[in-house]
Task: structure prediction
Amino acid sequence: MAVYTVYVPDFGRRAPSEADRYAALPDAVFVREGFSRAAFFLGPFWLAWHRLWGVLIVWFVLFGLLTLVAPQFLGDGAIFWIALLLEFLLGLEGNGLRQRELTQRGFRLSDVAAGIRRIDAERSYFHRALRAIPPPLPQVKISDAATAPARTPHGDIVGLFPHPEDAR
Result:
């Protein structure tokens, strides 16, 4: 069973209202915990797809050094193992880098969801999230609203007013 962390847009220092929390649900991002096979096999393409531009630049610098400078000092076998190690490291840390990038872009950790597939985790998260948000109040037209009937004054006046029959 896979575990996903769920990130939603943050609302700053103020507490989000129910409407804000409901509006943030379509923007929820699910990040799988653990090793990323896509980051391991498709390194720079995976980084570009997830808009991890800073890490992509570091990746190009490291592999540029590995292909241009390392052959002067290392053999082909050592260069291969170093490249494989760097890709393995990207596979291990790829989702963590993605989580850090989401928090820097203004997202916050909302929940942790688990499921056999991603769709199962999404279903369980949205089920919990929608249950936590109270349903909206029904819209009532002003013409349908009950109005208090007009009251006619009767009896004594309440308060510190003189009685009408008292002479001054």
In short: The mean pLDDT is 83. Residues 2-132 form one domain.
